[in-house]
Hints:
The chain is of the alpha+beta class. The chain contains three helices and five strands.
Amino acid sequence: MPWFLWLLAAAALGAAEFFTLTLFFGLLAGAALVAAVVAGLGVGLLGQLLALGAATVAGVVLVRPVALRQLAEQPLVRDGSDALVGKRAEVVQEVTATRGLVKLSGEEWSARAYDESLVIPVGALVDVMEIEGATAIVYPRELLP
């Protein structure tokens, strides 16, 4: 089979993968490219079919499970206010169980103490434990006097 027919098959399979997103037709397209290279080297039809089969099996058995597993995982990147959890902040106005103000990532945020019995003084460094709306729930980094 001429090499350019394998290239046409690879293009058709690539288009099928584009529309189905199954991660199967793309692997077949890659295998057709391998068969096109083998055909371009002058190997006969049996060799081309063996190369196609070997590349297909390798892709389906080795590549597809890894790709599907990577697609199923949630991204590790946190964005928005979730990205502020775990950050360090500085108390600008005394923080109690009901009110306070901290400087967090260059901005001033309203804050409350995570431990309702604490009163965190101005200048203390705190960790952001969670974000509730526009309020940072904080806990002191060091023991308070």
